[in-house]
Amino acid sequence: MREFVFVGQPARVVFAVGSLRRLAREVEAIGARRALVLCTPQQADVAQAASDLLGPASAGVFSGAEMHVPIEAARRARQHASEVGADCAVAIGGGSTVGLGKAIALESGLPIIAVPTTYAGSEMTPIYGITEAGVKKTGRELRVLPRTVLYDPELSQHLPVPMSVVSGINAIAHAAEGLYAQDGNPVMSMMAQEGIRALAQGLRAVRRSPGDMAARSDCLYGAWLCGSVLGHVGMALHHKLCHTLGGSFELPHAQTHTVVLPHALAYNAAAAPQAMVRIAAAVGAPDAATGLFDLARELGAPTALREIGMPREGLQRALELALANPYWNPRPLQADALARLLDDAWAGVRPQDSSFPRST
Ligand SMILES: NC(=O)C1=CN([C@@H]2O[C@H](COP(=O)(O)OP(=O)(O)OC[C@H]3O[C@@H](n4cnc5c(N)ncnc54)[C@H](O)[C@@H]3O)[C@@H](O)[C@H]2O)C=CC1
Ligand SMILES: O=C(O)/C=C\C(=O)CC(=O)O
User: Fold this and answer.
1) Signal peptide position in this chain (predicted)?
2) Domain that holds residue 21
3) 134/176 same-domain check
4) pLDDT in tens, 175-189
5) pLDDT tens digit string along 81-92?
6) ipTM over 0.85
7) Ligand 2 pocket, 127 CB below 6 A?
8) How many domains does the chain have?
9) Distance in Å, CA 41 to ligand 1 centroid
10) By the number of CB atoms within 10 A of the CB, which of 1, 3, 20, 82 ranks highest?
């Protein structure tokens, strides 16, 4: 029997090749007059182009976005926005830049327009993360949800293939866990399955031809769907493990998601059979966990924690941290099975092919 609660979140989404050129109109549409453009130092050129498109509606560029949003960067950006009289911020970049916009919005209520250039999905969520004294705190607040999202596939055209792949699999992880979320619902499940399908197809094509705009469009469409799932329903074991490994061992965010996901799905397979069937169907494989492991390998992504800087002697500590403050998970957390999971993920072992459930 179906039983669910669905609460939609407000967001205006504009999706088109070249949609960046609508930026000035979108700033005006939210009633703002001066927009501060946010970016990382590496993306100053594209941010300057956005600022030029805004013309007199630009309050300049702030290029101080950093990974995991250090609180000092958030304070500097907030102060700068106030000094230049900005009544809106445009965050152009990946999850780190969108995260900086959210940190400004959290304190000041400044409306954000997000222009994502990776596939991480943060632009569709009311989730913020801020790092203070080496500890990353996350929370959900509707006021940080971007008011408008401009998806322009042209902007991800030069995202290097290895980064495109792991970023896309980071998005797939949101959808995969959304399919077995405690507060899941049929709308999010449809979006999740379609998001995984679009990303699996798009990433394969991007690997063959990085400048293929149809492929970039598929990936960004998938990122939108998967990000929406993350924004609407709760995450489970996989996200907990990745946040623990990223936060305490400084592992790279999207690469960590890529390595851990097949193992977290293998762990949860028997407890969430319907979700596994949908994930497997979406990647075009007989089994969800091995399907995603094989996809990562096919796309040249890392498949072992040891490849991305995890010390083997840290695994026990990671396990303790993940168990100390767990998220809800469809399968109860069992220390010995989780230790095996982490060991397999560290070594890069292909998860055990489970004979059940299958997509066909
Ligand atoms: N709050 C939320 O809902 C979510 C937050 N996140 C957060 O986002 C962060 C990771 O974001 P990512 O997008 O993976 O990486 P990122 O935003 O840190 O970007 C990685 C690097 O790639 C560069 N880059 C971005 N787009 C590019 C492009 N099109 N071409 C060339 N270079 C480009 C950036 O300037 C940066 O140097 C993490 O801190 C994670 O926690 C991720 C997903 C959801
Ligand atoms: O840590 C954050 O900034 C909030 C959520 C995420 O990073 C989601 C994810 O793990 O990709």
Assistant:
1) none
2) 12-156
3) no
4) 999 999 999 999 999
5) 999 999 999 999
6) yes
7) yes
8) 2
9) 13
10) 20
